[in-house]
UniProtKB/TrEMBL annotation:
GO terms for molecular function: aminoacyl-tRNA deacylase activity; ATP binding; valine-tRNA ligase activity. InterPro entries: aa-tRNA-synth_Ia, Anticodon_Ia_Val, M/V/L/I-tRNA-synth_anticd-bd, Rossmann-like_a/b/a_fold, tRNAsynth_Ia_anticodon-bd, Val-tRNA_synth_C_sf, Val/Leu/Ile-tRNA-synth_edit, Valyl-tRNA_ligase. Residues 416-562 form the Methionyl/Valyl/Leucyl/Isoleucyl-tRNA synthetase anticodon-binding domain. This is valine--tRNA ligase. Residues 99-370 form the Aminoacyl-tRNA synthetase class Ia domain. It is an enzyme of class 6 (ligase). The keyword Transcription regulation does not apply. Residues 630-660 form a coiled coil. SUPFAM superfamilies: Anticodon-binding domain of a subclass of class I aminoacyl-tRNA synthetases, Nucleotidylyl transferase, ValRS/IleRS/LeuRS editing domain. GO terms for biological process: valyl-tRNA aminoacylation.
Length: 709
C-alpha cells in the first residue's frame, strides 16, 4: 500500500510492498503445483487453520541456512507436522567470486510511483512547443521515449550497509503481539529526521507507549546520484549557488545510463528543484577494443587509460591479469588475447594523445573501436607539433616583440593565405564545438596545424630566413609577426583537445606588446573569427599553387630513391592567361615547396619540353619535371592511356544521363548547371591528357630514332 514519504521540500508517493510472490500455507495442493512451475521447494510449517505454528520459528535464529533447513525438517518430523518434500530440477545461481549459492529472499521494499514524474520528464524532451532539454545525438530521443512511456514503479530499497538511509521509522508499540521490524504495515512513519519521526508517531499512536527504529535499508544508488545536480549546489538549503547555477547547462555521460541516471536526475530535478537540472545532454559513445568487442576481463582486452598514458610492458599487462580473480581457463584465454593485441605491450602515449584520439573517434556512431596504434599516431604528432613550434619560435629570435595588431593586405602572399585559412579553421572549430560535433572540431584543428601551417606555410617562408638578404627584410618581419599570431591562436584553438602540450608551448611564447597575458592558456580567451583575415582570392591562388606542387612531388616520388632529393628543373604548361599569371606571381612558393632548381611557365604555343615526366594537374595546368636519366616513356604512356579511358567513361555516363528522357523536367536548374560545368571540365581534362599522350609519343619516337643511330 502507499505511504507518503517526505523528501524535503515536497511529498513523493512511495509504494511499500511485499514483492511479487505471496506466501500461503503449503498444505494447499495447488501450492505444490505452483512450486513445481517455479522450481521451488515447499516445506509445510503451518497449522491446519493456515497460521504459522507458534513453535515454528523458535530455536532456529542465527543458524546457517543449510543447517537450519535440516533442523526445521527434523523439528517438523518430530512434531508430526511434516507433510513431505518434492525435489525439483532447477538452475542454481552461484556467486562468481565466492561460489556461494545465491537464493532469493522475499522482503518488503520501498517503491516510488514515477507516473507523473516520468510524464513531465518525457515532455521536457519531446514537447516541441516547450522543449526544455536537448539530447545529443538526436537518435537517443527514441530511447528516452521508450523508457518513460513504459515507466514502472521504482524500487529504491537496497539491503546494503552503505548509502543514504531510507527516511522511514518503524513504530513498535509495547502492546504489539509481534515485535519484528516491519511486521505491521501501518506502523511506519516518514520524516526528515528522528525527532520529526517521534512527533509523527506520537500523533498517530497518541497515548500509547512505543519506540522507533529507522529502516536499515538504504536508497538505491541511482536515487542518491539522481539528486546530484541539486545536492552539489547545497540543496535542500536555498543557497546562493543553487540560485545562480541551477539549472546547469550541459550533462555529458554515456548513452548506456540514459534512463538509469539521466532520466532519474530529470525526474527528481523537476519534482524537487522546480526545473530540469540541465538544458543539454551529450551522450558519448562506449569504448570497445580495436575489434569492436566489449571490454571484458575474461577476454583480456580491458584497456586501462593510465596504462595508455604511461605505457606498460606485456609482462606488466599479464601480471595485472594474474592479480585478478579469473579462473585458470579464463586467465589462459585472456593472456592469449593480450599477446595477440599487444605483443610489445602498450607504448607510452601521454594524456594528450589519448584525449585527442578519443575525441576524434566520437563520429563513430555509438561505439568507439579503440585502436592503440591510432593513439600512438597522435603521440607522434604531438612530437611533431613540439618540434614545429620550437623551430618556428627559433625564427622569432630572443628579442622579438609581437605587434598589437596586424594588417594582412600589406603582407606577403603566404602570410595572407595562412591567416585566411586560420580564420576559417577557427570558424569550423567553434561551429563544430557549438553543435557538439567534437570529431569535426578536432579534424578542423588538426588539418590546419598539419596540412596548412606545418606542411605549407612554415616551408614557404624558409627563404625569408635563409640569409640576411635585404630583399627579404620586410617579408621576414611580416613572416615573424604572422608566425607569432598563428602559434598564439593555434595553440589556444588546440588547447581543449591537448591541454598539456599546448600549455607548455604557449607559456614559451613572448607576450604581445603592451599586453598583460593571462597566467594560463586555460583561462585565456578562445580564438574567434577575424573577418579582415579572410581572403578568397588568395586561397584560390594557393589552391592552384598547391595542386601544381603536389603533382610535381608525385612525379618525384616515382624516381629512383637516390634521385628523389635532387633539385630539378620544372615546367608548368598553362592553358589560360589567368593560370599563367598566378603561377608566375608565385614562382618562389612553387620553387620552395616542390624543391626545384628552376621553373619555367609555358603556353599552349610552346613546344613540350623533352626528357621530362609529365602530369596533368587539371584542365588549366600540366607540369613537367626534368629527368636525369632516360624516361620510361612507354610506361608513362600506359598511365596516360588508362587516365584517358577513365575520363571517357565518366564523360559518356554524364552525357547519357543528361540526354535521358525527362532529364530537363526532373533535374533542378542548379544541378543541371553543375553537370554542364562538370562535363566541360571533363572535356578539357581529356584534351589535356591527350596532349600529354602526344608529348610522350614524341619522346618514344625520339628514343627510337636515337637507338637506330
Amino acid at each position: 500500500r502507499k505511504l507518503p514519504i517526505v523528501f524535503d521540500p515536497i511529498l513523493v508517493d512511495m509504494n511499500f510492498g511485499t514483492g511479487a510472490v505471496k506466501i500461503t500455507p503449503a498444505h494447499d495442493p495447488n501450492d505444490f503445483e505452483v512450486g513445481k512451475r517455479h522450481n521451488l521447494e515447499f516445506i509445510n510449517i503451518f497449522t491446519d487453520d493456515g497460521k504459522i505454528n507458534s513453535n515454528g520459528g523458535l530455536g532456529f535464529a542465527g543458524m546457517p541456512r543449510f543447517k537450519a533447513r535440516e533442523a526445521v525438517t527434523a523439528a517438523l518430523q518430530e512434531k508430526g507436522l511434516y507433510r513431505g518434500a518434492k525435489a525439483n530440477e532447477m538452475r542454481l545461481g552461484l556467486c562468481s567470486r565466492s561460489n556461494e549459492v545465491i537464493e532469493p529472499l522475499i522482503k518488503p521494499q520501498w517503491y516510488v510511483n514515477c507516473n507523473s514524474m516520468a510524464e513531465q520528464a518525457l515532455d521536457a524532451v519531446v514537447d516541441d512547443a516547450d522543449r526544455k532539454i536537448e539530447i545529443i545525438p538526436k537518435q537517443y530521443v527514441a530511447e528516452w521515449k521508450r523508457w518513460l512511456e513504459n515507466i514502472r514503479d521504482w524500487c529504491i530499497s537496497r539491503q546494503l550497509w552503505w548509502g543514504h538511509r531510507i527516511p522511514a521509522w518503524y513504530v513498535t508499540l509495547d502492546d504489539d503481539e509481534l515485535k519484528e521490524l516491519g511486521v505491521y504495515n501501518d506502523h511506519w512513519v516518514v520524516a526528515r529526521n528522528e525527532e520529526e519521526a517521534q512527533l509523527e508517531a506520537s500523533r498517530i499512536f497518541a497515548g500509547k507507549e512505543f519506540k522507533t527504529t529507522q529502516d536499515p535499508d538504504v536508497l538505491d544508488t541511482w536515487f542518491s546520484s539522481g539528486l546530484f545536480p541539486l545536492s552539489v549546489l547545497g540543496w535542500p538549503d536555498d543557497t546562493e549557488d543553487l540560485k545562480a547555477f541551477y539549472p546547469t547547462s550541459v550533462l555529458e555521460t554515456g548513452h548506456d545510463i540514459l534512463f538509469f541516471w539521466v532520466a532519474r536526475m530529470v525526474m527528481l530535478g523537476i519534482k524537487l528543484g522546480g526545473d530540469v537540472p540541465f538544458r543539454k545532454v551529450y551522450l558519448h559513445p562506449m569504448i570497445r577494443d580495436a575489434h569492436g568487442r566489449k571490454m571484458s576481463k575474461s577476454l583480456g582486452n580491458v584497456i586501462d587509460p593510465l596504462e595508455v598514458i604511461n605505457g606498460i610492458t606485456l609482462k606488466g599487462l599479464q601480471k595485472r591479469l594474474e592479480e585478478g580473480n579469473l579462473d585458470p581457463s579464463e586467465l589462459k584465454v585472456a593472456k592469449e588475447g593480450q599477446l595477440k593485441d599487444f605483443p610489445n605491450g602498450i607504448p607510452e602515449c601521454g594524456a594528450d594523445a589519448l584525449r585527442f584520439a578519443l575525441v576524434s573517434y566520437t563520429a563513430q556512431s555509438d561505439k568507439i573501436n579503440l585502436d592503440i596504434q591510432r593513439v600512438v599516431g597522435y603521440r607522434q604528432w604531438c612530437n611533431k607539433l613540439w618540434n614545429a613550434v620550437r623551430f618556428a619560435m627559433s625564427k622569432l629570435g630572443d628579442d622579438y616583440t609581437p605587434p598589437m595588431k596586424i594588417v594582412p593586405d600589406i603582407m606577403p602572399f603566404s602570410c595572407q593565405w595562412i591567416l585566411s585559412v586560420l580564420s576559417k579553421a577557427i570558424s569550423r572549430t567553434v561551429s563544430s564545438l557549438d553543435s557538439y560535433e567534437f570529431s569535426d572540431a578536432a579534424s578542423a584543428v588538426y588539418s590546419w596545424w598539419q596540412f596548412q601551417l606545418c606542411d605549407v606555410f612554415i616551408e614557404a617562408i624558409k627563404p625569408y630566413f635563409a640569409s640576411n638578404d635585404p630583399a627579404f627584410s620586410s617579408a621576414r618581419s611580416f613572416a615573424q609577426d604572422t608566425l607569432w599570431v598563428c602559434l598564439d591562436n593555434g595553440l589556444r584553438l588546440l588547447h581543449p583537445f591537448m591541454p598539456f602540450v599546448t600549455e607548455e608551448l604557449w607559456q614559451r611564447l613572448p607576450p604581445a606588446r603592451d599586453c598583460t597575458r593571462k597566467e594560463s592558456i586555460m583561462i585565456s580567451e578562445y580564438p574567434s573569427i577575424v573577418e579582415g583575415w579572410t581572403n578568397e582570392r588568395v586561397e584560390y591562388e594557393m589552391d592552384m599553387v598547391e595542386s601544381a606542387v603536389k603533382s610535381l612531388r608525385s612525379l618525384r616520388s616515382l624516381m629512383p630513391a637516390k634521385e628523389r632529393h635532387e633539385r630539378r628543373a620544372a615546367f608548368v604548361l598553362c592553358r589560360t592567361d589567368a593560370a599563367a599569371e598566378i603561377i608566375k606571381s608565385h614562382e618562389l612558393e612553387i620553387l620552395t615547396l616542390a624543391t626545384l632548381s628552376s621553373l619555367k611557365v609555358l603556353s599552349e604555343n610552346d613546344a613540350a619540353p623533352a626528357g621530362c615526366a609529365v602530369s596533368v594537374v587539371n584542365e588549366a595546368l600540366s607540369v613537367y619535371l626534368k629527368l636525369r636519366g632516360t624516361l620510361n616513356a612507354k610506361a608513362e604512356r600506359e598511365k596516360i592511356k588508362k587516365k584517358i579511358e577513365e575520363i571517357e567513361r565518366q564523360q559518356e555516363s554524364l552525357t547519357k544521363m543528361m540526354n535521358a528522357s525527362g532529364y530537363q523536367e526532373k533535374v533542378p536548374p542548379h544541378i543541371h548547371e553543375e553537370n554542364v560545368a562538370k562535363l566541360a571540365t571533363l572535356m578539357q581534362e581529356l584534351l589535356s591528357f591527350k596532349q600529354a599522350g602526344q608529348h610522350l609519343e614524341c619522346e618514344i619516337a625520339a628514343e627510337a630514332s636515337a637507338n637506330e643511330k
